[in-house]
Amino acid sequence: MTRLVPLLLLLALPAGAAAQQKVVRGFRVDPSASIRIQVPAGRLVLRAWDRDSVAVTGTIAPRGGSFYGGGAGAAAKLGIETDPGGAGPGSDLEVQVPRRARLWIKTSTASVEITGTEGELDVLSVTGAITVDGNPRVASLESVDGRIGVTAVAPVLRVRTSGGAVVIATRGGDLTAATVGGSVDVSCPALERGRFETVSGAVSFAGAVASGGVLEAETHGADIALRFAGDLNAGFRLSAPGGAVVNQLDPKAKPVSGKALEFVVGTPAAEVRARTFKGTIRLGR
Amino acid sequence: MTCDDFRDRLDDWVAGRLAATEASATEAHAAGCPECALDAEAARVVRRAVAGLPAERRPDRELWGGIEARIAAPVPRRRVWAAAAVVALAASVGLWVAVGRAPVPQPPAPAMALTGDLDLYRAASVELRSALDPAGLSAPLRASLERDLPLLDEAITEVEARMATDPTDPDLRALAESAWRRKLELLRRIADLAAS
Question: From chain B, which residues contact A within 8 Å (Cβ)?
C-alpha cells in the first residue's frame, strides 16, 4: 500500500503539467492599437482582419511555458512566458489582429508569418524566419540568422539580418536591406528608393527604378546583378576597384581615369549606383 | 516637416516632451524618412542605455575628452548626431562592463591616419566589442559573432589598405564607411539581444 501512494499521487497531478495546453483568448482593441507580442519558440502566425479585436488560438507544447495576454483600447500585449534562460520547446499560435494595428513582435527561434496587415511592423528575431505578405505602411524586420521574405505593395521597409537571406518583392516603395553573409534578392517594377548591401552575399535586383528614384547596391566580395525591364532612363555609376563590371546596357562605356564607370541610358531620370570591392557588377535587361 | 526640423525636435520627441500635435508630426516624418528613422532609433538606444546606468557613475572624462574634440570638428550636422549617438551608445555600454577584460584583437590601424567618421567608428567598435562576453551569449548569438565579425574585419582591412594607396577615391571611402557601420550594427544587435 505504501508503494502505491506515490503512484496514486503522481496520477492525481494536474494533467496540464505534462500535457499540451490549448490557447483560446480574445479581447477588444482599437483599430490601430499597438500590440506587443513575444513568442520565444515555435511558430507564430498573424493574420489581419477587419474587426476591432484580437483573437488568439493555438497550442503550447508540454513544459513550453504559459500564455499571457490582455489589453484594451490603444494597447495590448500577449505572448508565451517561459522559464528564465530558455526559449522552451515552443508553441504554435495564430493571432488575428486589426488590419491597421501597429505590431511589435519579438521571438528567439520562432518563425513569424504575417499576412494582410497595413499598419506598422517591427519584428525582431534571433534565428526565426520572418515572412510578411501584406501592405504594411512601415516595416522594420530584423533577424540575426533567420531568412526574411517580404511581399508587399509599396512600404517603407527596413530589413537587417546577419546570416539570413533576404527576398523582397514589392510594387514600389522605399526599401533598405542589409545582411553580412546572406544574399539580397529584390524584384520591384517601380522602385522609389532602394539600398541593398551585403558583405559576402550577392545582391540581385530585377525591375525598374521610378523617375526620380535611386537604387544603390553594395557588396564587398560578392557579385551584384541588376536587370532592368521596360523603358530605362537612368544615370549609372559603377565602381569595382578590385573586381569587374560586365555592362550589357552600354558595352562601349569606359571608366573615367580608371575609376568609376559613369554613363546614361536614355535620360538621367533615375540614379543607379553599384559598388563592390572585389566582386563583379553585371548590368543587363 | 524637414529633416532639420525633425532633428531639432528629436531629443524632445524621444523623451516624450513634445505636445501631442508636434509629436504626431514628428512621428509621421520618421515614418516616411528612413534616414531620420535611423537617427530616431539611435537616439532611443542611447536613451535606454544611459537610463540604465547607475546614478552614481559618470562618463569617464578621459574617455570623452578625445571623442568630444573629434565631434566638435566641423562636420555635417547629421553626421555629428549620428556619430555622437554611436559613441555615446558605445561609451554607455562600455561603462556597464567590469574592468579587466582582455583587449580583443581589432583590425590593425592603417598606415595612413584616417580622419573623421572612420576614427569614431573604430572607437565605438572597440567599446561595443569589449562589452560583449562571448561566454555569456546564447549559442546562436555567439555563432553570429564568431562567423560575421571576421567577415567584416577582413572587409575593413582590405578596403582601408587600398585607401592608403588611393585616399581620394570616394567609392573606397564609402565602402569603408559601410563596413564599419555594418560592424557597429552587428555588435549593437547582438548586445541588445543578449541583454533582453
Answer: 31-32, 34, 37, 138, 140-141, 143-144, 147-148, 151-152, 155, 158-159, 162, 166, 169, 171-172, 174-175, 178-179, 182, 185-186, 189-190, 193, 196
pLDDT for position B35:
67
Q: CA nearest A275: which of B176, B153, B115, B120?
A: B176
A136 grid coordinates: 504594411
Q: Provide the residue type at B49 as one letter.
A: A
The owner of cell 507564430 is A44
B-chain residues near A145 (CB < 8 A) = 140, 143-144
**B122, amino acid identity:** R
The predicted model scores a pTM of: 0.74
pLDDT tens for each residue of A31-53: 999 999 999 999 999 999 999 99
Could you report the per-residue pLDDT of B94-128, keeping only the tens digit for each? 433 333 333 344 444 433 344 456 888 888 888 88
Query: Of A199, A219, A237, which to mutate for an interface test with B (greatest number of B Cβ within 10 Å)?
Result: A199
In sequence order, which residues have a C-beta less than 8 Å from that of residue A180 and are 6 or more positions away? A161, A162, A163, A198, A199, A200, A201, B148, B151, B152, B182, B186
The verdict on A31 touching B (C-beta cutoff 8 Å) is no
How crowded is residue A283: how many other Cβ atoms within 10 Å of its Cβ? Answer: 24
Q: Cell numbers for A211, please give them.
A: 523617375
- B51 burial type by CB count under 10 A (0-12 exposed, 13-18 middle, 19+ buried): exposed
d(CA B81, CA B61): 20
Amino acid found at B104: V
Q: DSSP label at A12?
A: H
Q: How far is B111 from chain A (nearest CA, A)?
A: 20
Q: Which residues of chain A have pLDDT under 50?
A: 9-17
Strand boundaries in A166-231, DSSP class E: 166-169, 174-178, 184-197, 203-219, 224-228
With residues binned 3-state (H G I as helix, E B as strand, rest as coil), the percentages for chain B, rounded to 5, are 75, 0, 25
Return the H-helix or E-strand segment holding B146: helix B139-165
Residue A214 near residue A271, CB atoms below 8 Å: yes
Core vs surface per residue A136-174: b (16+ CB within 10 A) or e: bbbbbbbbbbbbbbbbbebbbbbbbbbbbbbbbbbbbbb
Minimal-distance CA residue of chain B relative to A84: B196
What letters, b where the CB count within 10 A reaches 16 and e where it falls short, cover A3-35?
Answer: eeeeeeeeeeeeeeeeeebebebeeebbeebbb
Question: What distance in Å separates the CA atoms of residue A103 and residue A15, rounded to the nearest whole number?
Answer: 34
**What is the separation of C-alpha B81 from the centre of its chain, rounded to a whole number of angstroms?**
10
